[in-house]
């Protein structure tokens, strides 16, 4: 769990006499841990997004501090705190300017401040943040699965800046070629942190939790939902190039009381749409007839209805070794254009005409009538979706 540097800095700067030398624009970064590192050669132990602290006890040359600071910045740390007054007395202006160009927060605390107090304080804040997240998750789950019991979630969410009457959406993240829950602890932590960084960049009030090997993100007032989803997709691909992710996105719903609807939508995208999509990012709204399908709670009824419509041609193909079903689907997709079908299948038009005529006989339907064509298109869409 990561927390925002700005919040912690303003809450503790007087207590620890902490001075921000530069990097104010970087205060909205997140940090997930605090490390004391005195040796330049131990920078490889940093994973990124930590606060690094040094007393300068390892200083062995005039160039040491410059090299140290640059390595900390390049390690993707969140900030650096330099304990001044014994081993380091002054921070060179050129070094402050360097951190400024990197938008990197650089702090000092005087020698009389006990570093162990800062570390204990900041780590406790991380632990408390994790406890808060667990409590928040329970409230969000109650809103999803027990919307008829508002007492179990409304007050808790309002206390934590959720607007109950504004829009909500849910984003789900799954592994395509791996199971998130079976991944290493280190990968899991890095994935969580990457998600939190993206959420922080957009300023969303949110809650992250896991269900059935998927990471769910509930977002309140998602004013840039599509942009965020695309940014998240790109960030995860860049951060974990060997992993294939599937990101599913619900529509926005109008209040917390309709969060269950958003959950059903995102589950539908995960379970139905993703398996037919070549894209890692899928939106519920991009598939226009989904709301109609999702409105029918019993998918088995839909499947039986679709199979009943197409049953004559499915049975004919089975008994005669033909593939008229695929030709019919292509005919509907090409809006009845024999020329287009002929070009796509490399088949003579006369042959296509003969087969279409045969399909009409098998189905006892008029493919020139919109009602019959719609019925067939809907049947194909249902079978593809389910």
Automatic annotation (TrEMBL):
It holds the Pfam family HTH_30. Residues 327-381 form the PucR C-terminal helix-turn-helix domain. Residues 17-126 form the Purine catabolism PurC-like domain. PANTHER family: CARBOHYDRATE DIACID REGULATOR, DNA-BINDING TRANSCRIPTIONAL ACTIVATOR ADER. This is PucR family transcriptional regulator. It comes from Liquorilactobacillus vini DSM 20605. The lineage of its organism: Bacteria, Bacillati, Bacillota, Bacilli, Lactobacillales.
